[in-house]
């Protein structure tokens, strides 16, 4: 009879228990020991130091403000360069090296336009790189949750800019740092006018991004910020702004490229290289990337100009596919109690594994299974019209009204605000109303006015990617040869002599495939476009759902135009209802490395893993967070740490800590056993 690994180790430990202070049996984890570089400990996550630094310091196309302005800006609170203040907002400090000559914090970079104008911006590393301190030692975890306070950073930056233009005593030294000591008064006046204009627009952006309930560190309303950015700033329609009041924790990135769907609510498919590029391009637009949203001038220029750096995004995604989760570091955080972990393994298999799949250590994997956990039980789940009507009530009157009307009952119990906001929000589509991205001849659907914010974002992202394909023909080749390239037909059915290079002419992309119809579009080109847009596989976006009331057939048809296949749907309304039910859910993912990802739940409302196993009534109503320090016993944020200055209040809208009571029926002994097992994943 073969014993499970942990059971065998537990039996060995019990046999040794009669001896004085027996050594803990080793955990057979196939990783190298932690290494210390520049005072930080790095765990073996499958990346080399060079790959890590490239990821930290490579631009994606974010442009917050002129680089020379930013480097010359002074923090009015500290009287030091503002660049040194970024870490005051919780972001990880950069390390010296050739990749980072100006010693910017992790994920803050220089971006250069074709005209050589340089910009200061962010990358995904800023929000998805986390420092974790335990026993006085700080580990830098790639792909983990930042302790950064995004709103604190942008509001602090806005205050610094305003202080500079509000006082000649502050502006004069700033101008000297930017222009040099020999600058003329005329040059300084021109700079002053430019900085004043930036101050006005950036302050308006910050005001529009101010949540009613503070996010604090380690969270942001990602969809709210992206929707505001694209619909209000890029479309120049301030009326589209909404307070971003549905904050979520930054998801950890290991395993993410291998999941079939991404985002907490599974909004985006993730099957092809184009899917991944679309998701990452949307992230760039949310962190100060720029896109010019105006109707294409003609068929030969059917795209939007943007600052998205698609080739870098493809390279980053391919690198992230190699990132592995961090193993609990016994030498730094203390040994795992193997006996308790062995007892916790069957508890996990019985209570957790059906939703949270296990990815075995030491094995190569290409998929990371997920489970979407529905937020609601529908009173008439098989009646498409009833589901659509219930969803309309949720969007227009709120979840409580739908429950009171007995249209739905609460299932999972988690705070639904993020999922509801992501699906319900509508915006004025302004100048690009009736524009389809991709073009209608490729199956795209024109934007309505108003339309869902999610549809507008999809339109902007696809148009920006098409523009990047024109600007960077090599991007097409990157997509076709990537680790999850979307063109399996290349080796199976491509005509003799065909190659992706045939799509380029003189070093620029031949846009003919995008705009010609019928016989003028060659079969080869049709295949490439089908691969790029995911036709016949997984479509690039999850589509529209009406913001309220019952949908007409025309609305339903538009709503499901970009949605994933729904199986046996026999009508547009049935497909729409299936999409609604699918997306009003939160994702349960593999929990490898979960020890390094506090706080927990989609909105960061539970401070540690121990409380995740308690009934809601026994969880902390408030707790402090913001420090890198973790509690190695309960495994989560250390609320007693000096840097834990933000008070998280779970009574506030969007902050509720309800749901996920799957550990409520366990005994306390079982909880501690399960907790110890979770350290080993």
Automatic annotation (TrEMBL):
The keyword Metal-binding applies. Pfam families: RoxA-like_Cyt-c. The keyword Heme applies. Residues 339-460 form the Cytochrome c domain. Residues 1-20 form the signal peptide. GO terms for molecular function: cytochrome-c peroxidase activity; electron transfer activity; heme binding; metal ion binding. InterPro entries: Cyt_c-like_dom, Cyt_c-like_dom_sf, CytoC_perox, Cytochrome_c_Peroxidase/MauG. Keywords: Heme, Iron, Metal-binding, Signal. This is Cytochrome c domain-containing protein. It comes from Azospirillum lipoferum. The lineage of its organism: Bacteria, Pseudomonadati, Pseudomonadota, Alphaproteobacteria, Rhodospirillales.
């Amino acid at each position: 009879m073969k014993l499970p690994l942990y059971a065998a180790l537990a039996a060995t430990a019990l046999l040794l228990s009669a001896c004085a202070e027996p050594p803990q049996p080793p955990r057979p984890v196939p990783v190298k020991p932690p290494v210390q570089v520049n005072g930080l400990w790095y765990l073996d996550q499958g990346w080399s130091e060079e790959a890590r630094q490239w990821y930290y310091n490579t631009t994606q196309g974010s442009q917050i403000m002129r680089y020379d302005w930013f480097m010359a800006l002074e923090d009015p609170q500290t009287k030091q360069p503002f660049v040194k203040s970024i870490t005051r907002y919780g972001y990880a400090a950069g390390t010296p090296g050739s990749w980072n000559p100006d010693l910017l914090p992790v994920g803050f970079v220089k971006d250069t336009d074709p005209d050589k104008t340089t910009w200061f911006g962010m990358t995904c590393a800023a929000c998805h790189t986390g420092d974790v301190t335990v026993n006085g030692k700080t580990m830098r975890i790639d792909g983990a949750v930042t302790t950064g306070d995004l709103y604190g950073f942008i509001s602090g930056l806005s205050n610094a800019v305003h202080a500079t233009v509000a006082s000649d005593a502050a502006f004069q030294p700033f101008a000297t740092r930017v222009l040099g000591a020999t600058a003329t008064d005329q040059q300084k006046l021109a700079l002053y006018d430019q900085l004043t204009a930036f101050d006005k627009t950036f302050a308006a952006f910050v005001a529009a991004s101010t949540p009613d309930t503070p996010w604090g560190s380690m969270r942001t309303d990602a969809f709210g910020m992206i929707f505001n950015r694209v619909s209000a700033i890029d479309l120049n329609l301030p009326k589209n702004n909404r307070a971003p009041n549905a904050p979520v924790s930054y998801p950890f990135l290991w395993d993410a490229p291998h999941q079939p769907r991404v985002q907490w609510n599974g909004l985006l498919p993730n099957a092809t290289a184009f899917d991944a590029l679309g998701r990452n391009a949307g992230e760039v637009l949310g962190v100060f990337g720029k896109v010019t949203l105006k109707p294409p001038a003609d068929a030969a220029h059917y795209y939007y100009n943007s600052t998205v750096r698609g080739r870098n995004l493809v390279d980053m995604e391919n690198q992230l596919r190699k990132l592995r989760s961090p193993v609990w570091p016994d030498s730094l955080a203390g040994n795992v109690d193997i006996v308790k972990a062995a007892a916790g393994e069957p508890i996990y298999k019985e209570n957790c594994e059906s939703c949270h799949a296990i990815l075995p250590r030491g094995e190569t994997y290409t998929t990371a299974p997920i489970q979407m956990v529905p937020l609601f039980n529908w009173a008439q789940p098989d009646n498409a019209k009833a589901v659509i009507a219930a969803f309309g009530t949720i969007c227009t009157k709120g979840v409580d009204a739908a429950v009171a009307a007995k249209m739905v009952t609460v299932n999972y119990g988690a705070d639904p605000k993020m999922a509801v906001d992501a699906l319900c929000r509508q915006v004025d589509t302004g100048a690009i109303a009736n524009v389809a991205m991709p073009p209608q001849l490729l199956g795209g659907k024109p934007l309505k006015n108003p339309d869902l914010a999610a549809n507008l974002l999809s339109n902007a992202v696809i148009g920006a990617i098409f523009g990047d394909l024109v600007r960077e023909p090599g991007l097409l080749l990157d997509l076709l040869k990537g680790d999850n390239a979307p063109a399996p037909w290349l080796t199976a059915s491509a005509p003799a002599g065909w190659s992706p290079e045939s799509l380029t002419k003189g070093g620029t992309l031949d846009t003919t495939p995008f705009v010609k119809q019928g016989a003028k579009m060659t079969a080869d080109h049709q295949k490439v476009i089908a691969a790029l847009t995911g036709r016949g596989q997984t479509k690039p976006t999850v589509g529209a759902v009406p913001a309220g009331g019952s949908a007409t057939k025309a609305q339903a048809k538009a709503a499901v135009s970009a949605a994933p296949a729904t199986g046996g749907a026999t009508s547009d309304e049935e497909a729409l209802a299936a999409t609604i039910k699918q997306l009003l859910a939160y994702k349960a993912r593999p929990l490898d490395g979960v020890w390094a990802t506090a706080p927990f739940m989609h909105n960061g409302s539970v401070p540690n893993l121990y409380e995740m196993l308690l009934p809601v009534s026994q969880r902390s109503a408030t707790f402090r967070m913001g420090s890198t320090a973790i509690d190695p016993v309960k495994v989560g944020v250390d609320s007693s740490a000096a840097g834990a200055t933000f008070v998280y209040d779970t009574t506030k809208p969007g902050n509720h800590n309800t749901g996920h009571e799957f550990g409520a029926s366990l005994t306390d002994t079982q909880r501690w056993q399960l907790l110890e097992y979770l350290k080993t994943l």
